[in-house]
């Protein structure tokens, strides 16, 4: 279990907030898209929204391309940008457009 070491409210680093459940978490609001945090494993993470379906993959997860088009508009799609979606051992479903999650940078701390 990895946990966030930078303090803030919202979903833990291994949690996906589905588009179907809404963008807020526990009625306190999710972090702003583009927020950076670090996990207890030393890895950097960014809060992003899927701009297209992302197929699940084993570790390290599906590689992503991150697109920043403005404040609170940071999206991720399958690509080659060096960030990764949670692996299937953490979230064993394909992600849908609009799902929000912590993308993880690189393959090692």
Describe the structure.
The chain has 109 residues and is mainly β. It has one domain (19-105). It is built from no helices and 6 strands. It has strands spanning 36-38, 44-50, 63-70, 73-78, 83-84, 100-105.
Indicate the topology.
Layout: E1 36-38, E2 44-50, E3 63-70, E4 73-78, E5 83-84, E6 100-105
Parallel strand pairs: 2-4
Antiparallel strand pairs: 1-2, 2-6, 3-4, 3-5, 5-6
H/E element order: EEEEEE
Q: Determine the mean pLDDT.
A: 86
Helix content: under 10%
**Shape verdict:** globular
Main-sheet strand order equals 2-4-3-5-6
Quick summary:
This protein is mainly beta. The protein has strands spanning 36-38, 44-50, 63-70, 73-78, 83-84, 100-105. The protein has one domain (19-105).
List keywords for this structure.
single chain; 109 residues; mainly beta; five-stranded mixed β-barrel; 29% strand; globular
């Amino acid at each position: 279990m990895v946990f966030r070491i930078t303090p803030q409210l919202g979903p833990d680093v291994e949690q996906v907030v589905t588009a179907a459940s809404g963008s807020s978490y526990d009625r306190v609001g999710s972090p702003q898209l583009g927020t950076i945090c670090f996990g207890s494993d030393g890895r950097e993470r960014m809060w992003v929204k899927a701009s297209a379906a992302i197929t699940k993959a084993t570790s390290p997860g599906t590689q992503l391309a991150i697109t920043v088009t403005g404040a609170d508009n940071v999206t991720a799609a399958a690509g080659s940008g060096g960030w990764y979606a949670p692996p299937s051992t953490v979230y064993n479903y394909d992600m849908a457009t609009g799902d929000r999650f912590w993308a993880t940078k690189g393959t090692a701390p």
